[in-house]
Amino acid sequence: MLIKPNQASLLVIDVQKKLIGAVSDPAGTLARTRWLLAATATLGLPTVFSEQYPKGLGPTVAQLKEASPGAAVVEKLHFSCVAAECLPAALLAREQVIVCGMETHICVLQSVLGLLELGKQVFVVEDACDCRGAHNRDAGIARMRAAGAQIVTREMVVFELMGSSAHEQFRHISKTYMVGEQP
């Protein structure tokens, strides 16, 4: 199954100021997530940021919000965005949800499992997910795959959203995001 631009939205889970320093690759995670956000914003993909207990853990990292300025922000206390019932109706109205964020084996996993239970087609962006250790990340990815989530990369997402080199943004995306060393 391919990602369809008119049926997909992006959910970025808990990439927050006080959490980012605890993951295994903070700089890489921020760079790859920012890349994904900027490219999908160029393509007009609806985006939502979730924040786990922002009073204590701080807001979403500012450079990510800057990459997708029109994105909605929702707060939660549950680890799962679905259990927290915080997802906007516009996101839930779409069949497909592209998911990335932190921590892979906790909030990302529980949100993905909840979305799958709602009947959503879920695409987990493996190279834009992180947590405190590779073993937990790998276990989270394996469990989501086994549950039926599609495991994808940032480039897979962007090229599926465009569908063709005839897409009006193809040239811009290619020149902006596909040249030089990638995060």
UniProtKB/TrEMBL annotation:
**Keywords from the named record:** Hydrolase
Please state the span of the N-terminal signal peptide per the UniProt entry.
none
Query: Which is one GO molecular function term here?
Result: hydrolase activity
For this protein, the record's CDD domains field holds:
YcaC_related
Show where the Isochorismatase-like domain sits.
10-155
Annotated protein name in UniProt: Hydrolase
Q: Which organism is it from?
A: Pseudomonas vranovensis
